[in-house]
Amino acid sequence: MKKFVSMLGELNKEQIESLLKELPIGRIGCHADGITYIIPINYVYDGINLYAHSAKGMKIDMMRKNPEVCFQTDAIDSLSNWESVIAWGRFEEITDLLEKQLAMQKILNKMMPLMHGETAQPSHGFTSEASDVSNEVELILYKIILTKKTGRFEKQ
């Protein structure tokens, strides 16, 4: 029987930045009123902030009450081959129209190549125009201003 040796370690700053920029899905952990809530999101990272969108709901309500959040994303090939980044930061709702349009464009530029099918569209109020905001759903664009990042890996 063949034995495999796994190596655990810490990702360096460049590896952390690369993983944050590469991956399209992460999880936000938020806490308010004695409740902790973790939810997956689509996001884009520009090297400074994470940008995401949402319809109004529990996550947005909680982050408005307590803007301090935790974010996690990972690339998992197997139980013994993975990389993971955890970051902490502060939720900030984007209200300026130009900043909203720029954030939406960043999100769409990352997400659209990952969408399958001719009519595939992201949810939560996007329209067919890449920089347009629909009034059908209350679309909330926000950023997470990252203050601390750490990363780990296991390789076999």
What does this structure look like?
A hairpin with a 3-residue loop joins strand 4 (about 45) and strand 5 (about 50-55). By secondary structure, this protein is of the alpha+beta class. Residues about 125-135 have low confidence and may be disordered. It is built from three helices and eight strands. The two termini are about 15 Å apart. Strands 1, 2, 3, 4, 5, 6, 7 and 8 form an eight-stranded antiparallel β-sheet that branches. It has a single domain (about 10-155), classed as Pnp Oxidase, Chain A. The chain has helices at about 15-20, 60-65, 95-110, and strands spanning about 5-10, 25-30, 35-40, 45, 50-55, 70-80, 80-95, 140-155.
Main sheet record: 8 strands, antiparallel
Low-pLDDT segments, ≥5 res: 124-134
CATH top level label: Mainly Beta
Secondary-structure content class: alpha+beta
For the record, give the distance between the C-alpha atoms at the N and C termini, rounded to a whole number: 16 Å
Radius of gyration: 17 Å
Helical segment tally?
3
CATH domain fold name: Pnp Oxidase, Chain A
Residues in helices, as a percent range: 10-25%
- Kindly give the count of domains: 1
CATH superfamily: Electron Transport, Fmn-binding Protein, Chain A
Second CATH tier, the architecture: Roll
Spell out the helices and strands N to C: EHEEEEHEEHE
Mass-distribution shape: globular
Strand content: 35-45%
Strand element count: 8
Q: Write down the overall mean pLDDT.
A: 88
